[in-house]
């Protein structure tokens, strides 16, 4: 049976879900254990939150630790991602990061609870709520799992909602270049498209990004461009932009981050997203990066299938938690 020390770890639970001909029916669930009380346990699974009364648990055990990334590995990758998507308004709560960007994207408008907030957890979350209330924004918290499982459990107790599960996926950069077809000819790709990398986004590029993330406010340009190593991929059919993507190199030069890879409907299913990724991967390798990461909603099945074909695997997951409409903590 599970114990308190198993909170924050990946576990498998077999539970009784009914009876048939007088015999119990079982169902298995795999996920991060975020809460364990005298009466129930709560898991974060790929399908969402699952609360199981202990009376229904037939068997439960922790999954071996070598199947999950270390705290240090999750922290490193989360901080590299923060560098690649920098909010213009930032503050610290101990080691935690507080970020705001006029409401443009959850990543740039959420607290990132990695490290020690330098105060008890309930007080830290009260401070998060006040910080966002002072800016007229809803409080959001990104909870990388299993790293922030205790934070998630406290947010559950407070009645916070969850946005869809996001997969943080990685692969070696050399393998990504090989899987996407080697060195692209940036002047004339086989599909007749022109693929270019630029240090700044064009107006057309911004319009494509607006289509996937909403009309960008002034703060969005900071989020997109305030990175030392950044490139914007543009793919043209004639003079018309048909696909866009963004690449950053952060984490002391190790990580290529892939962001906002978007192909317009008329140009989809022709390999264009792969060509943009390939161009960004070649650029990152030339300046010394060794690994790639991306963040994708689990429910985006088309994108997940593309990244799986290229060889990306899930490093960890995160949930964006949303505060209920009530007054900030004292």
In a few lines, what is going on in this structure?
Residues 195-330 form the N-acetyltransferase domain. InterPro entries: Acyl_CoA_acyltransferase, GNAT_dom, Rv0428c-like_C. With 330 residues, the protein is an alpha+beta fold.
How would you describe what is shown here?
It is a single chain. The chain is built from 8 helices and 16 strands. By secondary structure, it is α+β, with helices and mostly antiparallel strands. The chain folds into 3 domains: 4-67, SH3 type barrels (Roll); 82-164, no CATH class; 168-318, 3-Layer(aba) Sandwich (Aminopeptidase). α4 packs antiparallel against α7. The longest helix is centred in the C-terminal third of the chain and has 15 residues, at 272-286.
Secondary structure: elements and pairs:
Elements: E1 10-20, E2 23-36, E3 40-45, E4 48-53, E5 57-62, H1 71-84, E6 89-93, E7 96-100, H2 121-134, E8 140-145, H3 149-157, E9 161-162, E10 166-172, H4 173-179, E11 194-198, H5 203-213, H6 218-225, E12 230-237, E13 240-250, E14 255-263, H7 272-286, E15 291-297, H8 301-310, E16 313-322
Parallel strand pairs: 14-15
Antiparallel strand pairs: 1-2, 1-5, 2-3, 3-4, 6-7, 8-16, 9-16, 10-15, 10-16, 11-12, 12-13, 13-14
């Amino acid at each position: 049976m599970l114990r308190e020390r198993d909170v924050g770890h990946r576990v498998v639970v077999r539970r009784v879900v009914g009876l048939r001909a007088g015999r119990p029916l079982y169902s298995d669930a795999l996920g991060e254990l975020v809460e364990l009380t005298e009466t129930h346990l709560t898991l974060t699974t790929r399908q969402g939150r699952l609360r199981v009364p202990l009376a229904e648990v037939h068997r439960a055990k922790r999954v071996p630790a070598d199947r999950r990334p270390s705290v240090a590995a999750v922290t490193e990758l989360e901080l590299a991602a923060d560098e690649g998507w920098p909010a213009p308004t930032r503050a610290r709560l101990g080691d935690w990061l507080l970020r705001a960007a006029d409401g443009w994207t959850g990543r740039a408008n959420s607290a990132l609870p990695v490290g020690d907030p330098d105060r008890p957890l309930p007080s830290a979350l009260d401070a998060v709520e006040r910080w966002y209330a002072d800016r007229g924004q809803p409080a959001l918290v990104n909870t990388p799992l299993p790293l922030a499982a205790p934070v998630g459990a406290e947010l559950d107790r407070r009645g916070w909602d969850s946005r869809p599960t996001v997969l943080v996926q990685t692969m070696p950069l050399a393998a990504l270049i090989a899987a996407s077809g080697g060195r692209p000819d940036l002047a004339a790709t086989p599909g007749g498209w022109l693929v270019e990398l630029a240090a700044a986004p064009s107006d057309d590029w911004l319009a494509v990004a607006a289509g996937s993330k909403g009309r960008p406010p002034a703060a969005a340009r900071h989020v997109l461009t305030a990175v030392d190593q950044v490139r914007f991929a543009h793919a043209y059919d004639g003079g018309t932009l048909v696909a866009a993507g963004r690449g950053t190199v952060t984490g002391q030069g190790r990580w290529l981050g892939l962001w906002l890879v978007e192909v317009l409907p008329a140009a989809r299913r022709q390999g264009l997203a792969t060509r943009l990724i390939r161009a960004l991967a070649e650029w990152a390798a030339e300046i010394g990066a060794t690994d790639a990461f991306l963040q994708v909603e689990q429910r985006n099945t088309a994108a997940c299938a593309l990244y799986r074909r290229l060889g990306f695997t899930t490093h960890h997951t995160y949930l964006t938690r949303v505060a209920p409409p009530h007054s900030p903590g004292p």
